[in-house]
Amino acid sequence: MWLQGHDLIAITEAWWDSSHDWNAVMDGYVLFRKDRPARRGGGVALYVREQLECIELLVGVDEERVKSLWVRIKGQANMGDTVVDVYYRPPDQEEEVDEAFYRQLEVASRSQALVLVEDFNHPDICWNDNTARHAQSRRFLQSIDDNFLTQVVEEPKRTGMLLDFVVTNKGLVGHVKAGGSLGCSDHEMVEFRILCGRSRADIKDNKKGFFKYISSKRKTRENVDPLLDEVGALVMEDTEKAELLNAAFASVFTAKARPQETQTLEVREKVWRKEDLPLVEEDQVREHLGKISNHKSMGPDWMHPQVLRELADVIAVPLSIIFERSWRTGEVPEDWRKASVTLVFKKGKKEDPGNYRPVSLTSIPGKVMEQLILAVISKHVEGKNIIRNS
């Protein structure tokens, strides 16, 4: 394996303990390992070529219960970092430990480039149709789907049973092949190529990633300083500051809305019937869901844009029904009228509530409905020549 020149070498069921310290080292590689001294077998190891900058990660969730090895490898040139995990799951592992690993996976899956090299011991999984006989195996499949990961090893091993998995983000791993064995192991080796982490050069397509990077490099964090209320008293508590800012925003909105008198043009009265209203077609909703950017922030309903985009074919029908009902009744679902509000400091004194402006994050399904309404209004305005050239 050393002669092959692999950048990474992952080993499961290493059967190592402290007595192997002297012969586990391999020239040209940095070794990470997690042994299972209280039990034979089950240990894992990862060799990383020493030219690659790497560090072991502590995901901070159930570290003692789950012997999972997480390592972050720094991307070279303009490439992003890659997180690699090596994990061995004993066949008789309790469900509680499985759930502990899934919690770790949920934290680690926030990485844009994630590769899991695992011996999960789930031989009953049929990867062709993504089904399994046993409940723990089905729970594993659910966790993979929930974190938008995919299993890329297709060739059967160990008398047709697939035990060793490579699980990763879609499109990150290629050139997967199995064959040969390491020492006297009855497992076949799996070779694959990581197609590099996401490039940091695509800033034009992901401006949010750029500003997130800038924010991570700042030495200070923007928090709301103590504020002065209307009598000049200093407000320190977060709840009181939120109420003070809310009152300031409401007063500005009301003040701007009052002075202008509503003016209406004399038009011929027309009674609109329900059948005159445009229909909300399922295909329209599916198209809009497919165009949602994964980099958008969630609203107060905690519906992530990637979930909506991935499930566009499934939820297009129920959403079109909700949109249609809202359109015809003039009623908006309560969740769409809520917003998560964050603050942006403008200029001046930071203790003045009037020097902040709110940025509202609303429900993404509600935004899709707004786009459908905008399309209908724009079509009507253009078709009727309502706005004249000036």
UniProtKB/TrEMBL annotation:
The molecule here is called Mitochondrial enolase superfamily member 1
Question: Which domain of life, per UniProt?
Answer: Eukaryota
Domain (Endonuclease/exonuclease/phosphatase): give its ranges: 2-187
**Where does the record locate the signal sequence feature?**
none
Question: Which InterPro entries does this UniProt record tie to the protein?
Answer: Endo/exonu/phosph_ase_sf (IPR036691), Endo/exonuclease/phosphatase (IPR005135)
